[in-house]
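Translate structure to sequence.
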């Protein structure tokens, strides 16, 4: 199976951490797509295999022998259900809905982080400070909501925790000055522990020309 990735994407990272936590990385060929700071605001030239794989032209994208999945949600679902024996997310029942509720909040943060990053990469003339502020407020509001969930976090580093940890890591990396750690101190303490897991360390974004 081919998984199209870039080094900095939080959407890619939640898939990669899930794969590493399940210990199934040898089932995948990881393909780095062409990357550019322009991805957010302009058309970027991708290889023909990537364009053939996904009409959406976003990463992550997973090509299996039977089908192509073009977003992290369906890929995580496939990895968990088809390859992972539902070890990262319950197949049904209350545990599933509780986890999906947390995942939706963590994904709300990631969506805001990525949209804000794209806005910041636009020219000064085009950039909207209102939009950037709206995304920042959403990030901090969602961190505040996840802070209340920390006492109920279970022992398992499941898809809800993985997605939450990825959101925390991205804010530390790009938006530390917002002060998410002040808004969510228990979450920050939890993140400091789980960020040392091998899966998190192996997927940590680095500030390089590639990121
Ligand atoms: N909802 C999608 C979002 C994927 C996404 O937005 N990926 C970004 C990189 S973080 C991307 O490929 N952007 C390129 C573009 O929008 O042209 C998912 O869960 O995978």
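Result:
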């Amino acid at each position: 199976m081919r998984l199209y990735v870039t080094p900095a994407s939080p959407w890619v990272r939640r898939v990669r951490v899930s794969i590493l936590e399940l210990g199934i990385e040898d089932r995948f060929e990881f393909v780095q797509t062409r990357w550019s700071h322009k991805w957010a605001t302009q058309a970027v030239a991708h290889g023909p295999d990537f364009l053939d794989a996904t009409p959406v032209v976003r990463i992550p994208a997973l090509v299996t022998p039977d089908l192509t999945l073009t977003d992290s949600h369906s890929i995580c679902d496939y990895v968990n259900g088809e390859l992972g024996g539902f070890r990262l997310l319950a197949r049904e029942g209350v545990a599933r809905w509780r986890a999906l509720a947390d995942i939706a909040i963590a994904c709300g943060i990631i969506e805001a982080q990525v949209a804000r990053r794209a806005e910041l990469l636009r020219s000064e003339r085009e950039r909207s400070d209102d939009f950037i502020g709206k995304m920042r407020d959403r990030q901090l509001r969602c961190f505040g909501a996840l802070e209340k969930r920390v006492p109920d976090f279970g022992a398992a580093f499941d898809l809800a925790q993985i997605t939450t940890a990825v959101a925390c890591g991205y804010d530390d990396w790009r938006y530390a000055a917002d002060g998410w750690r002040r808004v969510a101190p228990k979450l920050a303490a939890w993140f400091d522990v789980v960020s040392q897991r091998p899966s998190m360390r192996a997927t940590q974004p680095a500030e390089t020309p590639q990121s």
